[in-house]
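Below sits the subject:
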Amino acid sequence: MKRILIFLTLFITAFSSGVFANVKLPKLVGDNMVLQRDVKIPIWGWAESGEKVTVTFLGLKYQTKTGKDGKWKLELKAVSSGGPYEMTIEGKNKISLKNILIGDVWIASGQSNMEWPLSATVNNFKKEIADANFPNIRLFMVEKAVASHPKEDVVSNGWMECSPETVPNFSAVAYFFGRDLQKEIQVPIGLISSNWGGTPAESWTDLESVKKFPRYASEAENLSKSKDDVGELLSKYKQDLAIWTKTSGQDRGYQENGKTWADTDVDVSTWSTMNLPGNWEQPNILPNYDGVVWFRKEINLSAEEIAKGVTLHLSKIDDEDITFFNGIKIGETKGHEALRTYIVPKNLLKEGRNVLTIRVNDTGGGGGIYGNAEDLFMEIGSSSKSLAGNWIYKTAVDTESMPKYPLNREPQYVPTTLYNAMISPLVPYAIKGAIWYQGESNADRAFEYGTLFPDMIKGWRTKWGSDFPFLFVQLANFMHDEAQPANYDWAELREAQTKALELPNTGMALAIDIGNPDDIHPRNKQDVGKRLALSALKVAYNKDVIFSGPTYKAMEIKGDKIYITFSNLGSGLEVKDVYGYAKGFAIAGKDQKYKWAKGYQEGNTIVLYNDEIKEPIAIRYDWSNNPDGNIYNKEGLPLVPFRTDNFKGITENR
């Protein structure tokens, strides 16, 4: 018996060491990858402590040994663009990698407008997908994850050749950027997409950088010192929730007869009433309720309204919704920061009574259809009908025995969590640069963003050990404006983004003229990608291209008129108006009150005035949510929004 036990112990030990002795590679190092040209190429992984690892590439062999922590790393000789090539990595096992290209690697990161996939009704998306046959563009998608501490690897299915089969769920902005860029530089392009909709910049910032901000320092430091990783806590919660759902957590809104509470003939006589928008976790409504609530509202439509079509704007929903119209599902969205917009298919519209139903799932914290009343409405042609007011509702799940959510809020909104899980593991993979589309979730903290965003960029560059090109998108036009000039969070956020251009090797692509006032996710991603590619050609490749629209240079006041000059004129200034009137400008006198300006072009100068302001002192341009500015250079790139004032209390105190 003793001999048998000894034999089993030796067998298990040998088997275990054989398993853990195998060389393992990070997800980034695999078949179909693009390696960065003209720089030393880091290749790394894990194996048994002290194990010799050999990498063979382009006829050269590189060797090293793993450290006590089981990690190894090699730097391969810099090579120019080309491929496809093969690589082998050998330890006690052998890994052969195929179809490797050498070219330029770009990280694409941010929130939902960078995440927005090609298949999600991007302009002309069906043809764009069908035409996306670019085997020398490679796609790598980082799956969503959170972590308390920097992870060693990302969650991903690895590198894929760009094709109509692989591109539909990939970032549209990143794809159009890579496609347009490759046409110009004619080398393989690797695109690493690492995004999460609705997330703030502090979540994408490393610990050392975010600790400079008192608002985030203690939370980030406590997270880094915690023994329990948020990812593991969430995984355990999801397991417990799945078990609970199968037992006592069934949604009564989905009935055994196949009907749902969204059906038009459901008996709603026992349903309660709630005023929306609003949070349901109030003492007189549903205090401390986390779970599923179904909301219903009846809508009357005329034949004329049906002919015009109906688009629903549902404000913000905490956290997830499934929306039905006359019993048929028309859309669903996850994320409590996202503004919901759903087009109702015309075949579902009925003259007279219609039923709108929204199933809301709250995973923790507040819950409900919340936000601003003006964001909860039906768009009918060029008019709108408010959906704010009384809705009926009914709870669908008994939540008393529901597993308790382990965190105070969703972890993707916590400083450093996305950097730790979705950016840090990409280091030290060699890259050419990064593109970034984010800011919507920080718009209420624009003054802070003016420092946070540059610090995030510097933090990333420090980790990579390089001041690599960092290109970003300025926020698109969105939401509606007041009749007279006013202060707007989104205008201040755009200004904060512009200030990041003070960092070296940065570029900004404008989207101020290609957005949609009623949709935070504009569908014209092609021009966003094109403008980012133009910035890359200038900043990263030093090409002689016009990459920016005009930027404010100086103003001169002559009597009651202001004369403005610009930089980055390209072939010259252009006012896009059939009558030559300059739009989008407001001027202020000594009373610091802005009024719309009249303006016209004189060569490459814009002249502004307002008959009521005899002594103008300051200008603003496109300083709103959805401006109508019409100043471009002749290459078709818009004037960068700006203001010349810094009146006390407008920026610093926000």
User: Anything to note?
Assistant: Confidence is low (pLDDT under 50) at residues 4-20, 648-654. The CA atoms of residues 22 and 93 lie 6 Å apart. The chain has twelve helices and 34 strands. Residues 2-21 form the longest helix (20 residues).
